[in-house]
Amino acid sequence: MGTGKILHIDMDAFFASIEQRDQPRLRGKPVIIGVKGGRGVVSTCSYEARKYGVRSAMPAALADKKCPEGIFVRPNPKKYVYASMKVMEILHSYSSRVEPTSIDEAYLEISGRNPGRETAESIKNEIKKSLDVTCSVGIASNRVYAKIATNMQKPDGLTIIEDDEKEEKIYPLPVSALIGVGEKSEKMLQKMGIRFIGDIAEYPDDKLEKVFGKNGIELKKMARGESSSKVCAIGEEEDALSVGNEHTLHKDTDNTDIIDIILLKLSEKVGRRLRKSQFAGRTVTCKIRYAGFETHTKRVSYPFLISEDEKIYETAKSIFYSVYCNGKKIRLLGVTVSGLVKSGNEYNQTELFYNSSKSVSVIKTIDSLKERYGESAVCRAACLSIL
Ligand code: TTP
Ligand code: MG
């Protein structure tokens, strides 16, 4: 059988592995990246800590309770950004088409002449040799399966899914293994009698479309391994169409409460403009300018359409914190959604991929209030407590 075309790579317990590499006393131990006794959440943890049930985004206090022998380590973002850059540099030496999708994750298009397994092994060896940390790789003929493959064997895994293996290896997986299917979508699918990826793959188009709009069709394509698998190298994105907003601060700040609120307000503005013009997009870009004018932009792309404020905010925020150097003062922030597609009933379509307790009617009400009384008329509780 032919080899896969898309290679997906994801570093193992990224921040924790870097700390274990740099501090030998942490090796083989349950390491929790976060602040012990703080009110914050866990950034990530070593595989040793995962055995105790510790997870990313879990409150630090809960992680401490679950794993009393866990060793908390404060995050060193600069170090992780540097390591990420090294990884991306290595990836670029294997393909001109590399799409980083987070600080420790990327898709690569590998040409037909290069056998997938050899390329993957070589990448894994080179990363291990030059950074002394491990990664997991998945290869398939499409992005969705490649990412699923990566997650099938972690840490230090290498998994290849051939096209003729999908019924055996992909279809028996629960729907939640598909990127974008959260708890809410899972429940809705369950009500339709859909539990496994194979169920979606065989489900009638019209019924999926009725419930989920265009994203229902997209979901079926994802399940079948037929969704778009283009790898967008940096600078190549099709973002002729985009909606974005920027905010320059009156006074440069490193206060993350203020930064979060600005990102929230920018995301709400962009979301409202998207919905008003009946567009939804795949890519969120966050622009960060430091006081010295040093500017960074980074983007994350989803295989589905989004237009909800919270999804935009969540994404912009995760991009921000993957780039931000703690303590550096910020002058300007920007949030943009691109890769836009005209969408008739976007609420219905995006509902499938959107895991929020906030109902569509609430979003609509907020939009119409802002329309009538201006942006500052409706401010969430989070904003009110600070501004
Ligand atoms: P992930 O790739 O999701 O996690 P991971 O690399 O730690 O572990 P895995 O082996 O399962 O891939 O995220 C990459 C890094 O991003 C992670 O090391 C820390 C950071 N991160 C956060 O700070 N907060 C989060 O909620 C998540 C999910 C990740
Ligand atoms: Mg990772």
Describe the structure.
The chain is of the alpha+beta class and 387 residues long. It is built from 16 helices and 13 strands. The chain has helices at residues 14-22, 47-50, 60-66, 77-92, 116-131, 143-152, 166-169, 183-191, 197-202, 205-212, 214-224, 256-276, 309-323, 346-351, 360-373, 381-384; strands spanning 6-11, 31-33, 44-45, 71-73, 98-102, 105-109, 135-140, 158-160, 242-253, 279-290, 295-306, 330-338, 341-342. Helix 4 runs antiparallel to helix 5, helix 10 (205-212) packs across helix 11 and helix 12 packs across helix 13 (309-323). The termini are far apart. Mean pLDDT is 84; it is low at 344-362 and 375-387. The structure holds thymidine-5'-triphosphate and magnesium ion (MG).
Structure in a nutshell:
This protein has 387 residues and is of the alpha+beta class. Helix content is 41%, strand content 21%.
What are the main properties of this structure?
16 helices, 5-stranded antiparallel beta sheet, binds magnesium ion, 387 residues, alpha+beta, 13 strands, binds thymidine-5'-triphosphate, disordered C terminus, globular, 5-stranded mixed beta sheet
